[in-house]
Structures are given as structure tokens and as C-alpha cells.
Amino acid sequence: MTPAKNLLTYSYYPGCSLHASAKEYDESTRGLFKALGIGLKEVPDWLCCGATPAHNVDELLSLSLCAKNLSLADGVEGDLAVACAACFSRLKVTQHHLADSDAKRKQVEYAIDGKVSFDKPVKHLLEILAKDFGLDKLAATVQKPLSGLKVACYYGCLLTRPPEVPQLDCVEAPTIMERVVGAAGADTVAWSHRLECCGANFTLSRPGVVLKLSGEILASAKAAGADCLMVACPLCHGNLDIRQKEIEEATGNRFGMPVFYMTQLLALAVGVAPGKLGFDSMIVNPLPLLREKNLL
Amino acid sequence: MSRIGVFVCHCGENISRTVDVEKVAAEATKLPGVAFSCDYKYMCSDPGQSLLKKAVSEHNLDGVVVAACSPRMHEKTFRSAAKSAGLNPFLCEMANIREHCSWVHEDREEATAKAADIVAMMVARVKKDKKLVPITVPVTKRALVIGGGIAGIQAALDIADAGHQVVLVEREPSIGGHMAQLSETFPTLDCSQCIMTPKMVDAANHPNITLHTYSEIESVDGYIGNFQATIRKKARSVIEEKCTGCGVCSAKCPQKKIPNAFDKNLGVRPAIYVPFPQAVPNTPVIDREHCTKFINGKCGVCQKVCGPGAIDYEQTDELIVEPVGAIVVATGFELYSIGEKPKGSPIKGYGEFGHGTIPDVIDGLTFERLASASGPTGGKILRPSDGKEPKQVVFVQCVGSRAREKGISYCSKICCMYTAKHTMLYKHKVHDGQAYVFFMDARTPGKSYDEFWRRAVEEEEAVYIRGMVSRLYQKGEKVVVMGSDIAVGLQVEIEADLVVLATAVQPRSGADTLAQKLGISYDSYHFYSEAHAKLKPVECATAGIYLAGACQGPKDIPDTVSQASAAAAKVMTLFAKSELEREPIVAKVNENNCVACLYCKKVCPYGAVEEKEIRDRQGNLIRVVAYVNPGVCGGCGTCQASCPSKSVELDGYTDEQVMAMIESL
């Protein structure tokens, strides 16, 4: 396939999950961007952003980890593209805090032994697709429209919050995921739990919490008539996909609801070979649904 | 002028804590022309004023400087004292050593030196003061009342009962305002219609009241005692004089499904309609946006069926000019809508409550219509989505109010009481129902008020949960309310059949535009500003304009009615004299120097500057000069600052006086 002419180029911060439990997010992101002709260059030598645990334990540590990544990213051309909602949130929060407080910036500079930069725009993939690339262009690139696929877009708690930081879309009633996947031809459903927390990293320490919260999310999507969920966060994916069977057992509900990364669905729509999208590593098998909708 | 008296006030400790008042008084005696100086604990008190009067006569003073607070506070007090001692009151000046000195400084020595300087400046100025004589202007003894809700009606009735003519202007087709929409009123639970509709009839039938409904203020010119109000009487398409109010037109109108705004869109109305059956006047209007005749010309049924021939499709807006002497503004409030707000508005909607998209989430006024005997359900509490009787109702307080993050930081004042009332009305009608209230504080001060909400809790068993609601969402037939109970530190979820939001009280839309037409000030929320929060609560800073009701800030009915009567009393005070005395601090034009560039006319915020033609005895035009109408001049001095030829000066603030003040330093 010849990539569409496009001058967009980004530095890319995948984060730990995308090299491990969320490999399919990484693969599909690279596939999608290649198909759209958007350049992605991975930040060399990046390290973990600290995700949700670090800032609960030590603020300086969590800021320093992200600051280090930001300064590494400075050496790579283009705005910084981030796929994982947790990494995105931490990197943006770090920029926000350091721009706000000279004292904190000095501490962090001492900790990472170098200057901190916080000018480089950090962008979530959704922002790149909806704003930089553009929805019209995305729609024009679609080869296999996702028509008939009823998608429940799940934002989770991190994509739009805290209110002042990501500025991705309206905090309480965002529509950016619906707009992006809608441009690829999918039908999106209106449902209540788009912004509720899935239980995040309580998945190991307090699984009961996760079963309840994620169970409500699945039930709500199902009640709204969705065929599948679409997420932009590896933690949400873990709780909703890997734990789905357990949730079904605990609640007695039967969901059978595939949980896609947004890039998987979009890549499929723009014609990336399904074999390259990591469908086989999903716990809830999406293939019957995709076949039923003539998407394979 | 050479015998000046200086009176230095301690203002209790307000001044003396920071300023050595005795030293200031002693320093003053050294100033040229000062014949007497003293200090006293409270100059504004009776003994203080007597001290001033005594000194004037004993020391034969010909000018007085009172070093005390802001002239806004007590200039009038001391000028009257000076007058009663035989001085022209405008030979008495105030040196502000409180707001301008003691309150804003800490260092005693520096503050004392500054106070002495301020006194010296005022002494220099008072020596150049001229005797001024108050200006008299005639008063037109007719009042304009803008807004026909309970505030406007009360003010109009009071003024009319005192024997004066009143012009009452209402934007809607009927008077009555929000009070006519209410079911029963706190804290006595008497029916709102029963106390409101007779007043509406009184206002309409009063021989001294001219009622203009379906009308808006187009413009207002003039000044206190002499306003000219232009009123746009919108085309009703019905000739008021001919219409008998029989209602056949509405009954026969084929267009029937227009949401009824009076019923908060719960019911429907035809295109030719009266807002509600008890409307005053009982004359319908044609809603031209929805009328088939106006849309495509293919109807005309109302005209055919109208016996008296009152329908007039050709009617156009009419402009009426009414001369009035005083204006009462009573434009009232509207409720904050949780829907999405237009871009650029500082006030955000409630995405977390669904932006107003969930049908069984309603606001307080909508609940009033549900509970009202004259409402769309005949007083039965039925929810909008499917007309079922809700068995679990959740009331949410402080929606949008006291919410800085939403852009409204004030308390809406009436919601604690009306929510308590709603829980009672609900329980009275749905005996097996349960009401829950999410609240932050119960703010129920007022006569019989706290007792009222305790009754809701203790007798009607409303469950009050202290905490905020974070989210509302539809789940099947239910609306799930996710909230917190901070008393027990737990999250709460209630599956409600109906949710009633006590949304913030806001001024009527267009309040800012009207304020600009009237030349009155408003705050950042567009509530109108009173001249003084405590001492002039019903007056505007613009003379002759008074405020009543929720246009000034959230108010309940008793407060609104009290303020309306107070505004009426102010109007009657004004009308008690046939001529009005005004302070003579006005600008005057030196016609010899004026070159008629009329910069002063451009900058005058009061519109007081006119062009004046100077003619010789034969009537030939010699030249044009600027003229300041003393009745309109507000005494701000802007013209003086802008005049390139120094031809206009404000009495009491002449260039000579200001230069003398500067030179005295």
C-alpha cells in the first residue's frame, strides 16, 4: 500500500504497556499511522512514566520520571505522540506542574541532572487523528467502513481529567472518540458509563473493586446495545477484557463483549491487514463479531 | 475667605488608631487662613455636629474642613450642619483621612503626616469655594414600572394607590411573572394563584395604571423627574379594544402542538393563545413564528371565527412615548439551564448531568408546574417521560449556584426553602412516595423558615443527604443519581423516578441591554447594582431609578414585595414635591472661550451636553457653543478634563481649586 502524502511527523512515546500487555495497541498504532502516512519515531531510551503508582508514593519521583522522558523526547523531531491514557495524563500533569512552580522545577532538574523542557506539545493519538490529521481526511482514507458495528466508546477517567490538564475535549461530556471512530464509519452508542473509572490498578490489590466497577461499565454498554467497547488505555483494556470472564462469573451476566483499542478498529478501517492488529492476543475473541459485520 | 475651621474626627478608633489626630489638628492651626481647629471622637454624632455649629458662630468661620471619612458617607451630614450654622453648605468640604489614609496605612508617623497634607490641600481648596445654590428641576409625577411580576405589580399598585399615574410595561403577553407559575408558596403553603391573580386584576383595573403587555423598553432619555420612555408595543395581531376574550380563536386554531413555555414546555398551546387561563389581560396573541397564516398564508381560521372582528394580521409594532418622573426596574429572574452554554460564555453547562438531555431530570419551576392545580397535569405529580407517578424523587440543591467552577459563586437563596416545600407537596400528593434531598447546608433564615424545613424532615420524612451529586444517568426507566454522603463518608447511589434540580437563580436574559438603555450599573452576573448595599438598597446610582425584586439579586416573595413597596415609597417621596432640588455640583461652559469643538459632548456619560446657538438681537446666528444641561449633568468632570480650551469647569472642582490644592503641598 502506498502511504498517503502527509507531512505530519511525531516523536512517539509508547510506554511500558505497549511493549508488554498491550502489544496490540502498539502494533495497531504503528500500522495505522503508516497507512495514514504519518511519521512516528520512537523516543530512544525512554523509561517508565510511573503511571498510577508513582505519584501516590512520591511526587518528586513521578515528576522526575516524566521530566526525564520529556527531555529525551526533545531530541526527536515532532510533537510527542502518546497512546496510553495513563502515560498521556502523567506527562501532561508533569508539564503543568513544572510550568507552574519554579521550586518544583529546580528539584526535578537536580534529580534528573539536566534541564527540564516542558514546551513540546504532548498529544494523545486521538488529538492527532481528530485535530492534526483531520476527520474529513480520515474518513476519506477509509477503505473498509466499520458500518453496522455498534461501538461503545470508553474514555475512562484519565483521558479528559484533571479538568485543567489534558484539554483534549469537554471534561464531562467529551465526543472526540465518537467523532474519530464515527469518521471510520462505525455507529456509536449513547451510554452512561463512558467516563467512569474501571478500577484501574486495583486489578491486583483489590480485584473485588475492579469486578464491580468494570462490571457496571460492561453492563451499561451492553444495555445501550453495543457490540463492542473501544478503549484508549491499556489499564482499562486489562480490566475489561482480561477480567471479563471473571466479571461474568461474579455477576452472572453474560457480556461476550470484545474490547478493542481504538487504533485496532481504525487500522482495520483504513485497510491494514487484520493479521497485523493483534486480534489473537485479545481474551474475548473479536473474530466472530468482525466476521458477522463483514469486516474481515 | 480667610477664617477656616478644621474639625478632625477620630471615627472611634478607625482613624485615631493609625493617625495622631491631635497632631493633625495642631498642624492645621499653622496653615494660613485657619482660625480654629479641634479633634473629636465622633464628629458625625450630635455633639460632634454641635461642636461644628458652635465653632462657626463663635469664631465667625467662613469655611469648614471636616477631616473624617469619605464624602460619600457624611458630606451631606456636615453640609447640613454648616447650613444650620448659617454658612452656605458648599463652603464645607471633607478631607478623607479614613479610606484614603488610616485604613490603607500602617505606619503611624507617615499616616499622620499624610493626613496633615490632605487637610492642608482641602483648606487650600475650601478657600476658593464659591457659594452655590441648589438647582431645582420640575418633576413629572408619573412612574414607569418595568416588569409585571409580583415586584412590578406591587410597586405599581402602591404608587397608583398614592394617587399617581403608573405605566406598567411587561415583555410577556400577560402580567404575573414567575409567581403566577408557582404552585404553593413557602412558608405558609398558600396557593400562589390565589394571592397573585387578584393582584393582577387589581393592577389591570386600577384607574391610575396604564398596562402595556407584550411590550418592551426601546429607549429611555432624560433624567430624574423628567424621563422620556419609548415603549415598543409588539404586534399582538389582535386588537385589544375589540377582543372580548371569548377564546374561540384559540379553540379553533388548527396549530395545536406548540410547547407551552408558561408550563415549562410540559404542555402544548395553539398559535393564537393566552399564556394561561388566568392571564391578565385575557387577550390572546398570535405567535407569528408558529402561525400557519404567517408562515405560508394558508389559514386565517381565527379571523373567520372571531365574532368581534378583533384579529388583525396586518398589525405592526407600535412605539409609544411616555413622559415619566421615576422608574422602577423589576425585571426579575430566570433559572440557570444545565444545558450546553454558547461558546465564549463563562458559565458552563452540566455534562455530568447529561446537559439537560434526560427527560426525567427537571428544574424547580417545572416541578412547580407539575404540582400546580392549573398546571399541565392538573396538579398530579407525573413524570414527563411516560406520565407515571414517581415513587422515588431526588432533589438536588445548589446546582450551578455556589459553584465557582461553573462560573456562579453566589447562593441562590430561595432553593433551600422551595426544595423543602417541594418535598412536602410531593408527599402530600404521593403518600407512598419517598423524597431525597442532596444538600450542602440548609440555609433557611427568616420568620418561620427554619421551622418549615424541619417540618419537611421530621413530619414529611424527606431524607436529607449532606453531599454533592457527581453524576446523573439514565438506566432503563430510572435515573441513577450518584452522590456522596459526607456525614457517613460513603458514596450513595439512588435509582430515582424523577430528579428535580434546584438550579441557580440568574437575572433575566437581556438584563444587561436594558441596564445600558437606562444607564444603571450591574455586576458581573448582570444583577443590577444598588447605590449602597445597606443604606440605599432600592436606589440605583442613577437618580430617579429604583430597583425591586430578583433583578437585583436572588429574593423570595416576601423580600420582593417588601422591596417593591420600598421602591414605591421612594417614588412617592420624589413625587411629594413639585420641584426637585439637585446638588449644584455641575459643569458650566464659559461661552466666551468655547470654540464648539464639542469634545465634551462626545465624552459626557450622561448626555448632558447640548449645542447652543448664540444669536444677535436681530436673530442672526453668530456662533455655536456647548451647553451643559444642569438637570442632566452628573458632576463627573469628564468634560472638564477633555476640554482643550479650558472652557468648561465643574463647580466646586475648578482648575483654580485643584491648582491651589497641589500648590499647598
UniProtKB/TrEMBL annotation, chain A:
One Gene Ontology term of the molecular function aspect: oxidoreductase activity
InterPro entries named among the record's database cross-references: Cys_rich_dom (IPR004017), HdrB/HdrD_reductase (IPR051278)
Keyword ATP-binding: no
Chain ranges of the Cysteine-rich domain: 11-91, 151-241
Pfam families found in the cross-reference section: CCG (PF02754)
Keyword Flavoprotein among UniProt keywords: no
Domain of life, source organism: Bacteria
Record's keyword terms, sorted: Oxidoreductase
PANTHER family to which the protein is assigned, alphabetical: COB--COM HETERODISULFIDE REDUCTASE SUBUNIT B 1
Official protein name in the record: Heterodisulfide reductase subunit B
UniProtKB/TrEMBL annotation, chain B:
Keyword Iron-sulfur: yes
A Pfam family recorded for this sequence: Fer4_7
Cited InterPro entries: 4Fe4S_Fe-S-bd (IPR017896), 4Fe4S_Fe_S_CS (IPR017900), FAD/NAD-bd_sf (IPR036188), HdrA-like (IPR039650)
Keywords: 4Fe-4S, FAD, Flavoprotein, Iron, Iron-sulfur, Metal-binding, Oxidoreductase
Occurrences of domain 4Fe-4S ferredoxin-type (ranges): 234-263, 282-316, 585-614, 624-653
Cofactor(s) it depends on: FAD
Keyword Heme: no
Example of a GO MF term: 4 iron, 4 sulfur cluster binding
SUPFAM superfamilies referenced in this protein's UniProt entry, alphabetically: 4Fe-4S ferredoxins (SSF54862), FAD/NAD(P)-binding domain (SSF51905)
Family of the protein in this entry: Belongs to the HdrA family.
Protein name: Disulfide reductase
Annotated organism of origin: Geobacter pickeringii
